[in-house]
Every structure is written in structure tokens, then in C-alpha cells.
Amino acid sequence: MADPDCLFCRIVTGDIPADIVHETDTTVAFRDREPQAPVHVLVIPKQHQPNAAALVEADPSVLAEVIAAAHDVAVAEGIAESGYRLVANTGADGHQSVFHAHIHVLGGRTMGWPPG
Ligand code: AMP
What we know:
With 116 residues, the chain is an alpha+beta fold. The chain has one domain (7-107): HIT family, subunit A (2-Layer Sandwich), CATH 3.30.428. The protein is built from 3 helices and 5 strands. Helix 2 (52-58) packs across helix 3. The N and C termini lie far apart (34 Å). Bound molecules: adenosine monophosphate. Adenosine monophosphate is lined by residues 7, 16, 18, 30, 32-34, 42, 89, 95-98.
């Protein structure tokens, strides 16, 4: 399930430190090291899948748990009422840089649209 060469798998195992803000049996959430908004947290499944679509194919209930964890993070960070954005960058044009499924939780300011 874990890929020893995957950065986010190594955060799940604790080999690489991260500022973890939320954890469940199947998910971990930690602050992005290059925040793009006042709140910028990544929610990942503990199991290794290369992107969100692959996670749905492998285990759809875990994607639901990732989304639920993202909302729990938004509540804990005080942005659930003001609003927030969930982003799942996928592939090169989607600007995906880490190939372990993850959802960005962004908030604390008004998000622009369309995205860059
Ligand atoms: P993406 O471009 O959608 O694949 O997002 C990957 C995100 O992971 C980027 O926003 C990076 O800033 C973030 N990131 C990369 N390495 C780390 C790390 N060690 N700890 C926290 N965030 C990271």
C-alpha cells in the first residue's frame, strides 16, 4: 500500500516531518509547506494512490473520508462559514507535483476565479 519512494507515504509513516492538523484511520491532513492562502492544508489518504481518480477506482469510500476530513479541517481552522476551496490537481496540465492523491483545502481569503 505504501510506496517507500513517495514523499506523502513517508509523511504518513512519520519518516518525514509535517505539521499534522487532523488524522483519522484512513486519512492525514497537514499544512502545505508553501501556503497559497492563509489556510492551506493538504488532506491525503494513508493508502498510496497516484491521484484522486485512482483512489475512487480503488476504494471510493476513502475519497468520501478525505472530503469529510477536509470539511473537519475547515471547521477547525474557522473557515467553514466564510467558505473554502477544495482542489485536486491531476496530471501535468493540472499542476500536480506529488503523485499521491491529495486534496488542497484553501481558505481565509476570497479565492479568485478562474484559477491561474
Ligand atoms: P500538487 O502540486 O497539487 O501535487 O500539490 C503538492 C503540494 O505539496 C504543493 O502545494 C507543495 O507545496 C506541497 N508539499 C510538497 N512537499 C511538502 C512537504 N514536505 N510538506 C508539506 N507540503 C509539501
